[in-house]
Design a protein that fits this description.
Number of helices of chain A: 3
Chains: A alpha+beta, B mainly alpha, C mainly alpha, D alpha+beta
Strand content of chain A: 35-45%
Number of strands of chain A: 17
CATH topology of one domain in chain C: Cytochrome C Oxidase, Chain A
Structural class of chain A: alpha+beta
CATH architecture of the largest domain in chain A: Sandwich
Strand order of the largest sheet of chain C: 1-2
Structural class of chain C: mainly alpha
Distance between the termini of chain C: 48 Å
Number of domains of chain A: 2
Order of helices and strands of chain C: HHHHHHHEEHHHHHHHHHHEE
Number of strands of chain C: 4
Oligomer: heterotetramer
Shape of chain A: globular
CATH superfamily of one domain in chain C: Cytochrome c oxidase-like, subunit I domain
Number of helices of chain C: 17
């Protein structure tokens, strides 16, 4: 009788501990996944730089993929109304540690299609899992080259046709890691590894950073050729901050 | 009853059926010391050790020949070869090594004297062997100092092909000298145990003298090429 | 530093370790080398199977391959780098750990001291080290399979700068190359110890009456090979050390200036690419003869016993083998005709390369001429010996082509070369190993091998080997480049059916080797007990007091030699032969002696 | 058993010779001015090697067949002439054979590698890198712009490291991923490797030369037949070795000029 009572006590205490811990954790998650957002557009002023055409004649398969649409380099892609595509936007200041270290669960996809990388620039969170897939019937090689000392370790793997996706992640913040295909030297892209919420501009240069908690931040826009720009934004709880950027053509 | 056949005419057949005179010693005879009595050690060193040491030295020589040709080719392959003056301590080290050869030779002759039965008055091979050992160690230490002097000048292994070859060649030689030192220690030990055989001592001293010659060659090479 | 006290009258060890593991008995060491070679050849053969399947059906998923390497075979499909890694390991393991260890180190260690009538090698501890050092080298080589991005993909020739710039040049080019070079350097040390013993044994440990000309041809093969080994491996070792330094110490022995890999300018300067090739091939070509000369000796030794007559000329054969050894150092440049070497030196190298065919031809003619008028006995050993001759001829004639720089323009780095060296060096040497195994197994283990299985094994191997390697020459003529993991070039597509044929043949022939493995194991334990001299042979290994020979080979007293090694086809008291140790006069009808 | 073995050897020997005689697989068509001696040398060598091959294999088979038969009482015979005869035969037959081959071969080789390029040869630079060839034409000014290794960037398609902003000579250089040459004009090919060892091999052109990093070599040749051919790398250069190739277009002078214009526009 006495022993049973003691057991009940133990169980009760245990439940209380679990509950309190649980609520604390949940509470943090709620904070990190803020429901505000930052939106805006990135434009290029001046004439867009000349993008060389890509000669894929080395690999007839690649040539066949673009028979009636000549391929150009994608270092600077200007869309309708001077919108800049493939610009990465992320919050460089203002996030608390927890908010910055929250990792989204979805896996962004880096596809090898027609012997080009789509997207040309893939943004992701530190420790966020991303997927490298191939849609081509020729063997590709993926060779990310992080800067030495940045805390990321480079790798170099090939993907034969029909090989399963490579799923991995990056340990440290780095904007941006250059990606090459050693078999097709013209294939080149970027991994932008950032802390906290991020976004990449679409073809017309528009973007929206979601899940931004209330607060005032510095938003940084990175373009592989034109460098970075920053802007201060304030986001009210559940509200929308706005930040537009304009890069000057070199 | 075996069938009788006409044998093929083959020059081997024309040799006598007696045991021929040019024969080896069957291996391993003369090789056991007579109960540690140094006087009673066989005068004639069995061939295997002496042949073996020559074969071994041939291999070592070949290795350094390869490195030499590598040096020559590499020097000619590009214009990035930077000359530098050798640390002067190397010449002092050379003297040390030469001296060690002399002392080792003295020790060897004294042991030979033992075995010939004509014992000199105050002959003490062990002492001379210790001196040789000391000289050898001083040589290696000297080489190390030479390295320190070079690195003090900012000449490291990867600084320039010339310094690379300097370190590689001296290191390879020093490594072989260490082997020789091991041999010397072994000889001293056996001398103390009174189980030393002429063959062991002769082989060791040949090796040691070869290290000497090799070093003088290397010194010339480095002096001429660096 | 060379202790002799182990040479004479040392008591056999009793503990298991000293007896079977760290033994200083040359016979045990020989068996250990044989075991190492067996393990290595099984690995090498398995790798070649994977490669062949991939070449025949490039995108075929080999079930379970991803267990071997998750990166190398995602979804069981082999990646280009993994193919090259397997290829490199296949070449390295086969050349170093099979073709060098089995015919030279394994049989040489076991039988050379017995054939010269010695109790043991003069430096048994060096001998023991020789094996264990080689074993460590093998472990290091295999270890590179378990590094992050696998073994090196640079091919067994490891041309710089691909091998020297490091991981930036591809998977396995960092740690993989370092392990490779370290393993080879260690291997060289082991073989130097071995050669030291072989040479000294042959020169100084011969028993009474055993003059140099009374040495059996197998002993001559090992002796000449050991001299080559001493010089060749002494050159490869420093080369490997320089290669390692380029990796770990940032030196520039082999890496030229201004190299740009993956858009990164490499920090090296002024290294010489050709330097590596010169150093490597100065070793590499003699290495080919290091693989084949012992096989020649073994095959000659087996043949005379089964032809029941001596060679047409013992001495000419020995001189020819010696000539091969000497010339092999003057011809290495024929590997570099189109490598950017001075075109004039290409011509200079082509003539000795052509001239080396003369001693080879003499050797073949002596074999054929001795076959003429002989009393040939057909058994598995002699079948493999004769098969080796056939293979050596087939592989040898393609040398005519590759010796000429002008033809090298068309044939360099094609499958023609691959076919050539597989036949003349690999298959011929392996046939020599098989022949020696079937011939000497009774002496080594005291039991006969199964002849029926042996003959089946021979037929499958002989026909299979031709089915695999003859088509290689056709592929080469059609311009099929070697070391391609897939054939994407338009003019190579039509050749894929030939590759599929080869793949099938390779799988079948490889499977046939399991018969040999079974025969080895079964005969070892359950074979018929062997008599002391099953082949009625004359050389010293057949006059040991017991079978297998006792610890000191001759039971305390050394044999005395009265005759040349091969006294066959004459009237002796025992039959148509007279043992080397028999003091009897050689009685022959009409003999003036 | 022995008879079966003898027969097998003969079947294999003759069987392997048939595809050679029938040229089932043979050298590709020769479209070069210098290739003829090579092909002749090849046939010569093939004939001599083939004869030696068949002769010795068949001899081996015959001896095995003949002398494995038990012949009680019959004494062992020596080969007529003995070892000495064989040695002399080897020296005379094989010796003269190989020396002849060597001499003619050396002549063919020298005619290709030891002759200077013609003064009017068209200079083209080929750069090999992991794992593609890129070709550079000097453009109207006829001079190649200087190479800046630190500027080489595949990401920016600056394969040769040209500084078009500062180097006048580099401005008009034409860089292409495929090689076009006019028919019947001598080409002077300047070979440069950007990273590791590679090789330039066009079977039809009878051209084969390795790229040596740190050492720029040059070869010269003349194509005689219009068409599309493959340039392949034969020197193991890494994981993409099997896929390192480029196409060679041999075209008429007019087509070549147009091609140059077209490429210049794409720069």
């Amino acid at each position: 009788m006495k022993r049973a009572y003691r057991n009940h006590l133990v169980i009760l205490l245990a439940t209380i501990v679990v509950l309190t811990l649980g609520t604390v954790l949940l509470d943090q998650n709620v904070q990190a996944a803020g429901d505000g957002s930052i939106t805006g557009s990135v434009k290029l002023s001046g004439t867009a730089p000349h993008m060389k055409g890509i000669d894929m004649s080395k690999d007839p398969y690649c040539v066949k993929q673009h028979e009636n649409s000549p391929v150009k380099m994608e270092n600077v892609v200007v869309g309708s109304g001077g919108g800049l595509a493939n610009v990465v936007l992320y919050i460089s200041q203002g996030l608390t540690g927890n908010e910055a270290s929250a990792v989204p669960s979805e896996q962004p996809e880096f596809d090898q299609k027609g012997c080009m990388y789509t997207p040309h620039v893939l943004a992701m969170d530190v420790n966020q899992q991303y997927k490298v897939v191939t849609s081509d019937q020729t063997t590709h090689n993926i060779h990310p080259l992080p800067a030495p000392g940045a805390g990321n370790i480079g790798w170099n793997k090939s993907q034969p046709p029909g090989a399963p996706p490579i799923v991995t992640s990056w340990k440290a913040e780095e904007v941006a890691i250059s990606v090459k295909c050693n078999i097709h030297p013209w294939m080149h892209g970027w991994f932008a590894v950032v802390k906290g919420p991020y976004a990449t501009t679409d073809d017309s240069g528009n973007y929206t950073i979601k899940n931004v908690p209330a607060g005032s931040y510095t938003v940084t826009a990175w373009q592989e050729e034109l460098g970075t720009q920053t802007a201060k934004v304030t986001v009210s709880a559940g509200g929308t901050g706005k930040a537009d950027f304009t890069f000057k053509a070199k | 009853m075996a069938t009788t056949v006409q044998p093929p005419k083959i020059e081997e057949r024309r040799r006598p059926n007696r045991p021929s005179t040019d024969s080896g010693n069957g291996g391993g005879r003369n090789s056991v010391p007579a109960e540690g009595n140094l006087r009673a050690v066989k005068e004639h060193a069995p061939p295997p050790a002496s042949t073996g040491i020559w074969v071994g030295l041939a291999a070592i020589g070949m290795t350094f020949l390869a490195l030499t040709s590598a040096l020559v080719v590499r020097k000619g392959s590009a214009l990035d070869w930077r000359h530098f003056t050798l640390p002067s301590i190397l010449y002092f080290n050379t003297l040390l090594l030469l001296a060690s050869s002399v002392t080792l030779e003295v020790a060897r002759r004294q042991v030979a004297g033992f075995m010939g039965g004509s014992r000199g008055k105050d002959a003490n091979p062990a002492r001379w062997l210790y001196v040789t050992l000391a000289f050898g160690l001083m040589f290696v230490a000297g080489q190390y100092i030479a390295w320190r002097q070079l690195s003090a000048q900012g000449l490291y292994l990867a600084t320039n092909p010339s310094s690379s070859f300097f370190y590689v060649l001296t290191a390879a030689h020093a490594l072989h000298v260490f082997g020789g030192l091991g041999g010397l220690i072994r000889v001293i030990h056996k001398l103390k145990q009174l189980t030393l055989r002429r063959s062991t001592l002769d082989a060791t001293s040949r090796y040691w003298h070869f290290m000497d010659v090799l070093w003088i060659y290397l010194l010339w090479l480095l002096w001429a090429k660096l | 530093m060379h202790d002799m006290s182990h040479v004479a009258h040392h008591a056999p060890p009793t503990s298991f370790i000293r007896k079977h593991v760290f033994s200083i008995d040359h016979k045990v060491i020989g068996k250990q080398y044989y075991g190492l070679a067996l393990a290595a050849v099984l690995i090498g053969m398995f790798l070649s199977w994977l490669m062949r399947i991939h070449l025949g059906w490039t995108n075929f998923a080999i079930p379970g391959l991803h267990w071997l390497s998750a990166n190398g075979a995602p979804g069981d499909v082999m990646t280009p780098e993994y193919y090259l890694q397997l290829m490199t390991m296949h070449g390295t393991i086969m050349v170093f750990f099979v073709l060098t260890t089995a015919p030279f180190a394994a049989f040489g260690n076991y039988f050379l001291p017995i054939q010269v009538g010695a109790e043991d090698m003069p430096f048994p501890h060096f001998n023991m080290m020789s094996f264990w050092v080689t074993f460590v080298a093998f472990l290091v080589m295999v270890a590179s399979f378990f590094t992050a991005d696998g073994p090196t993909l640079g091919g067994w020739t490891q041309y710089a700068p691909l091998s020297a710039v490091g991981a930036v040049s591809g998977p396995g080019q960092g740690m993989g190359v370092v392990l490779w070079a370290a393993s080879i350097a260690i291997f060289c040390v082991g073989q130097l110890f071995g050669s030291l013993n072989f040479i000294t044994t042959t020169l100084d440990m011969r028993t009474k009456g055993m003059s140099l000309w009374r040495l059996p041809l197998s002993t001559w093969g090992w002796f000449i090979t050991s001299i080559m080994g001493l010089t060749a491996f002494a050159v490869l070792m420093p080369a490997c050390i320089l290669l390692i330094l380029d990796h770990v110490a940032g030196t520039s022995f082999f890496v030229a200036s201004n190299l740009v890999l993956n858009d990164q300018l490499q920090p090296h300067s002024g290294g010489s690419t050709l330097l590596w090739q010169h150093l490597f091939w100065f070793f590499g070509h003699p290495e080919v003869y290091i693989a084949i000369l012992p096989a020649m000796g073994i095959v000659s030794h087996v043949l005379v016993a089964n032809m029941r007559r001596p060679m047409l000329s013992h001495r000419v054969l020995v001189y020819s083998m010696g000539a091969l050894a000497v010339l092999s150092y003057m011809v290495y440049g024929h590997h570099m005709f189109v490598s950017g070497m001075n075109p004039i030196s290409s011509i200079a190298f082509s003539f000795p390369t052509l001239i080396i065919t003369i001693p080879s031809t003499i050797i073949v003619l002596i074999w054929l001429g001795s076959l003429y008028g002989s009393r040939l006995r057909i058994n598995t050993a002699s079948l493999f010996a004769l098969g080796m001759i056939s293979m050596f001829i087939s592989g040898g004639v393609s040398g005519f082509f590759l010796a000429q720089p002008s033809l090298d323009i068309m044939l360099h780095a094609t499958y023609f070369v691959v076919g050539h060296f597989h036949l003349v060096m690999a298959v011929a040497a392996i046939f020599g190993i098989f022949s020696g195994t079937y011939f000497w197994f009774p002496k080594m283990y005291g039991r006969m091998m199964n002849e029926t299985i042996g003959k089946i094994h021979f037929w499958l191997t002989f026909v299979g080997a031709y089915c695999i390697f003859m088509p290689f020459h056709y592929l080469g003529l059609a311009g099929n480049i070697r070391r391609y993991q897939a054939f994407v070039d338009d003019y190579l597509q039509p050749l894929i059916p030939v590759h599929r044929f080869i793949t099938v043949a390779a799988l079948a022939t490889g499977a046939a080797q399991l018969l040999f493995l079974y025969n080895l194991i079964h005969s070892r334990f359950w074979g018929e007990p062997a008599p002391d001299n099953p082949w009625e042979a004359t050389s010293l290994e057949w006059s040991t007091p017991t079978t297998p020979p006792p610890y000191d080979n001759f039971g305390g007293k050394l044999p005395v030699v009265y005759h040349d090694p091969y006294q066959y086809g004459i009237e002796g008291s025992t039959g148509d032969y007279v043992m080397q140790t028999s003091p009897e006069q050689i009685k022959t009808v009409g003999d003036e002696a | 058993m022995a008879k079966l073995f003898a027969i097998t050897i003969i079947i294999i020997a003759i069987g392997s010779a048939i595809p050679i005689v029938q040229h089932t697989w043979w050298l590709s068509e020769d479209i070069s001015t210098h290739g003829h001696p090579i092909d002749e040398q090849m046939s010569e060598t093939m004939a001599e090697a083939g004869i030696s091959f068949l002769a010795s294999q068949i001899l081996l088979a015959i001896f095995i067949w003949q002398y494995s038969k038990p012949r009680p009482g019959e004494k062992i015979k020596n080969f007529p002439g003995g070892a000495g005869g064989l040695v002399i035969a080897a020296f005379l037959l094989v010796g003269t054979e190989v020396l002849a081959l060597g001499a003619f071969g050396a002549k063919a080789w020298a005619s290709i590698y030891l002759t200077p390029p013609a003064a009017n040869a068209i200079p083209i630079q080929v750069q090999a890198g992991q794992f593609a060839f890129y070709f550079r034409y000097p453009g109207p000014d006829g001079t190649f712009g200087p190479v800046h290794p630190e500027m080489i960037s595949e990401a920016n398609q600056n394969f040769f490291g040209l500084d078009t902003d500062h180097d006048a000579d580099a401005k008009d250089d034409i860089v292409a991923a495929e090689m076009a040459i006019p028919v019947n004009r001598e080409i002077h090919l300047l070979m440069h490797s950007k990273d590791v060892g590679h090789s330039f091999h066009v079977p039809e052109l009878r051209v084969h030369q390795d790229f040596v990093p740190g050492l720029d070599l040059s070869i010269h040749f003349t194509a005689t037949k219009v068409g599309k051919y493959e340039i392949v790398c034969t020197q193991l250069c890494g994981l993409g070795h099997y896929n390192m190739k480029a196409y060679l277009y041999v075209m008429s002078q007019d087509d070549f000029d147009n091609w140059l214009k077209k490429e210049a526009a794409l720069q």
